[in-house]
Structure to design on (159 residues):
């Protein structure tokens, strides 16, 4: 595209030169002009070759840029996933470190989440003890020959 434009510009000069008949003997100035024209043509040809090389390289460069953009997006996604994983691990670490930490009592006062966990643990222990007592009571009642099924049905009916 660019080659045809430049060659058309210089092609007109060649046609004009060819149209003028050479009647006078060749002078030094004319020889210098001819040499200069040849050098210019060689430079133009070299430039045109380089432009064509660049035009051929552009699609490959565009594909490379698109590929790099995709890879960057994939890296961003990986970093986001790693960030979430690290946050999860840090939360788990905090819970575990509060379990093992000798300064647990001091930290418990500072962290409301650990206070709630401690309260839930106490309630769970209390429920376990009550359940064990109910089991023992049922065993004792069963030993005396009490109809446990009827008692269970009555309790469920009240609830």
């Amino acid at each position: 595209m660019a080659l045809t434009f430049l060659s058309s510009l210089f092609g007109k000069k060649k046609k004009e030169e060819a149209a003028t008949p050479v009647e006078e003997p060749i002078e030094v100035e004319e020889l210098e002009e001819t040499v200069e024209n040849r050098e210019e043509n060689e430079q133009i040809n070299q430039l045109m070759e380089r432009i064509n090389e660049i035009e051929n390289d552009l699609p490959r460069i565009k594909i490379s840029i698109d590929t790099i953009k995709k890879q960057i997006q994939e890296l961003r996604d990986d970093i986001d996933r790693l960030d979430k994983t690290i946050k999860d691990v840090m939360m788990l670490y905090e819970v575990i470190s509060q379990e093992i930490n000798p300064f647990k009592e001091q930290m418990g006062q500072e962290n409301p989440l650990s206070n709630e966990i401690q309260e839930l643990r106490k309630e769970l222990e209390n429920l376990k003890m009550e359940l064990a007592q109910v089991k023992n009571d049922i065993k004792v009642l069963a030993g005396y020959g009490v109809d446990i099924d009827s008692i269970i049905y009555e309790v469920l009916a009240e609830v």
Remarks:
- Residues 133 and 144 are 17 Å apart (CA to CA).
- The longest helix spans residues 28-100.
- The radius of gyration is 47 Å.
- The chain has five helices and no strands.
